[in-house]
Design brief:
Catalyzes the insertion of molybdate into adenylated molybdopterin with the concomitant release of AMP. Its EC number is 2.10.1.1. Helices cover 17% and strands 28% of the residues. With 401 residues, the protein is an alpha/beta fold. The protein folds into 4 domains: 2-22 and 178-327, Molybdenum Cofactor Biosythetic Enzyme, Chain A, CATH 3.40.980; 23-46 and 142-176, Molybdopterin biosynthesis moea protein, domain 2; 56-127, Molybdopterin biosynthesis moeA protein, domain 3 (Beta Complex); 330-400, MoeA, C-terminal, domain IV (Beta-clip), CATH 2.40.340.10. Helix 1 (6-16) packs across helix 6 and helix 4 packs across helix 5. The radius of gyration is 31 Å and the shape is elongated.
Length: 401
Amino acid sequence: MFNIELEKAIKLMVESIEEIKETEEIKLIEAGGRIIAEDIYAPMNNPPFDRSPLDGYALISEDTKGASKENMKKLTVVDCIFAGGYSEKVLQKGEAMRIMTGAKIPTGANCVIRQEKTNYGQNEVEIYEELSEYDNYCFTGEDIKKGELLVKKGELITYVHQGVISSMGISTIKVKAKPRIALIVTGDEVGMPGHQLKIGKIYDSNLHLIYSRLNEFGLRPVIAEIIGDSEEQVGKRICEIIQDVDLIITTGGVSVGQKDILHNVLQLIDANRIFWKVNLKPGTPAMYSLYKNKPILSLSGNPFAALTTFELLGKPVLAKLSGNKTLQPKQVTGTMEDEFNKPSMKRRFIRAYFNNGKVSLPKNKHSSGMLASMVGCNCLIDVHKGTTKLNKGDNVEVVLL
C-alpha cells in the first residue's frame, strides 16, 4: 500500500503481529515496569493478626468507663509487647499491656489507648480517656483478605504492586517476556561518537535517540548498530538476526534517492512490504514490512522525522508486542499560547511543550533535520491537513511524549 493515512498504517501494523506469549519468572524486586503474566491472589490475610495501629496500652474497654483527666482509672501493667513479638498472657479485667505500633494485640484485649492519654506508667498506668470496644484496633485481614485478587494478568507492575505482593511473602512472579528489538541505523555518512569525524561525515543521533527512548520504556534493544549504505550488508544482517528478534527498527534509506537502499534490501531478502509512505509530515517515507512473520519498521533518517514516526508508529507496535497498553500514544486537547504561521498542505506534527492545558512552541527551527529545538518539548501538535496557521487561543490536539 502507498500513501496511506496514519490510522490505517497503525491498523495494518497491529493486525499483522501477535502479542508475545513467552513468559519468565523473575525476582519481585526486579519486576517494576514489567507486565504480569498471571493473576495473583492473596495467600494469606494482611495483617495476619489483630494488631495495634499505635504506641500505647492494650486493655479492656469496660475498664475505661468514665475515665478522664479528672477521673483517671488505674490498671496494672502485666506485660510489654514490641512489634514482631507477642504475649502468651491472657489479659484480665483491671490489667493492661504496654504495646507498640504493629504488635499483635493480646488475647483478652479489645482496644488500645494511645500513650499520650496515659501517664506512660510501667508497672501501673493511669488512663485519662474512655474507650469503646475496638477503638484503635486493626483487624486480621483489614488491608488484604486471603483469596483476594491482588494483581490482574496483563497489568503493568508498579512500585505499589511490588509492595503489596511482597507483603504476602511472595518473592518471585511470572511476567511477560520483553520484545527482542534490533535497531539498525543505515548511512555511509554516519559516524559514531567517540571517533574522529571524517570530512563529509556527521555523528549519529538516531541510534542513540531511539535506543534511549526504548530504554525509557524498559525495552533495551538486543542489537544496535550502524551499517553503511550497502544493500548486501543490510540484507545479510537482517537475515542473520531475524530469528533472534521480535522486531527490527531501521532508520534511513526509505526515500527515493540513490542511497535509499531499503526498497532493494526488502526485494533482496524477499520480504513483504505492507506499506510505504504515510500521509504526514515529517517522516512521510516510513515503511513497514514483514520478513519471516517478523515486523520491520523503517523510518526516515532525518532525526526529528525518525523521532516523530517512532512515537506515532513504533509505540503502537511495541504496545501490541509487549502487551503493555501504557505504550499506546496518548492524545489530549490543549490551547495554543503561540502562533504557528506555516501552512500545512498535509497532516503535520510539530514539536511543542504542554503544561496544564497550555501549548507553547520552541522558537523557530521546525525542520525535520533539526533536533536541538526538541529539548524541553514533551508533545507533538497534530496539525490537520489544509490548516493555514495556528493562532494563539486555538484548541489543538497534542500527542504526549
